[in-house]
Amino acid sequence: MADLKEARVPDIGGYDDVPVIEVLVSVGDTVDKDQGLVTLESDKATMEVPSPFAGVVKELKVKVGDSLSEGGVVAVIEAAGEEAPAKASDETAKPEAPSKQKSAKSDAAKPGATQPEAQSTTRTAETAAEVEPVDVAGQRDNITRGDVAKSGDAVPTPARRLDADGLMPDKVPYASPAVRLFARELGVDLARVQGSARGGRITKEDVQQFVKGAMAGGGGAVAAGGGGLDLLPWPKVDFSRFGEVEVKPLSKIKKISGANLARNWAMIPHVTQHDDADVTELEALRVALNKENERASRDGSGTKLTMLAFLMKASVTALQKFPEFNASLDAGGENLTLKKYFHIGFAADTPNGLVVPVVRDCDQKGVMEIARESSELAKKARDGKLGPAEMSGGCFSISSLGGIGGTSFTPIVNAPEVAILGVSRSAMKPVWNGKEFAPRLILPLSLSYDHRVIDGAAAARFTAYLAQLLGDMRRALL
Ligand code: CAO
Questions:
Q1: Same domain (yes/no): 329, 421
Q2: Ligand 1 centre distance from Cα of residue 308 (Å)
């Protein structure tokens, strides 16, 4: 018969009604003993509530935003393997060592709850594990909370002393609450970070290296200069104090692209070079070709030649002339990988957020084929049907807001690429031709680049060349 047990909050040093900020498991998950179930965060500390036994999560009793105190039920777990002695309930099976034994309480707020008195909590050396909670407010709060790691054990386990970072063995991923908090602030999924400390524990430096490595194309080498980000915690504001609010979770795409954008913005020294391209003739050609195609396809279903397709083709020619733009910097910041292929990504706005599909081998394709492929990919993106392969391998990206408006903007480099072209709305402008002002269709270009790789002069040359190409695409044949 299934052995259903309640996983309860152990002694957390006297804290009461601590908000749940993270639920680390789902119903149906198989958990190891001591694997974190939820993360609690008070104004002073973050701490994980581990599962007191291995098994399968049958029911979650809390969600993010709920509050828990000692004894509060976190989950119902169908325990697996060797379990507590017969008849021993979870509570009665708790090791007796802690002198500050409390009975299970409801999750509801306790009237008259006082400040933590964790210092008075005593344990024997055999069962206690002394750790310091993370002090998010800037000071260490000298509270012991070793019980968090073991008090839910169905049967007493051999002594285990945790180290000062507050790590808890057997957790997946294996990191202290301080590191978890740090990773959350950076939007890093700890499951993807390789721990370098004893037993595979993930340190703050590992998280920093992961961010740097991901930015520079994978790998975990130490980036030149080091230093890392030393950011203040994100401000926590109860906006409802100021007026009515509604909380809306970000879409999955927004969360993923947001984490990437934040990393790229923080880690890459961006500079944006602005220039104008005279696309008067190109636009006339595009319109004429589209009319021809429309007539040829009779039903009007032929491929529409877009300005984006011309921009992609012209970018390939510029990348061929300036190879360091078709490159990626390694994680150590020492070597540039120059690519001999030309896969161009373009930012596509979808109802769920920004994605960057990639058209492969644009050097081997005509503008018409690039237009057809990019419009198919854009449709797939909008329908949420893009596969990961269709968004990988890009060398250079284009973010075109020309269909919407604007005169210039600063696109964020799509690491591990080293440059991105932003395109704003073309407009008819008076341009001096030596004799008079003539009306010309001017397309604003904004090239953001990684200044570690590309010098300002090279960026100015690249952008000017691109503008020249768009002014006369015959140059692409040279
Ligand atoms: N200047 C003036 N008009 C432009 C233009 C430009 N630079 N680029 C496109 N247009 C016009 C087109 O001519 C077309 O007009 P018609 O409907 O009259 O023919 C209209 O804008 C729509 O253009 P399009 O269908 O060719 O689409 P597009 O090539 O502009 O864009 C795509 C395709 C996928 C890039 C676009 O749908 C998109 O998602 N854009 C947003 C990208 C984005 O969000 N970037 C920001 C990323 S950073 O946050």
A1: yes
A2: 7
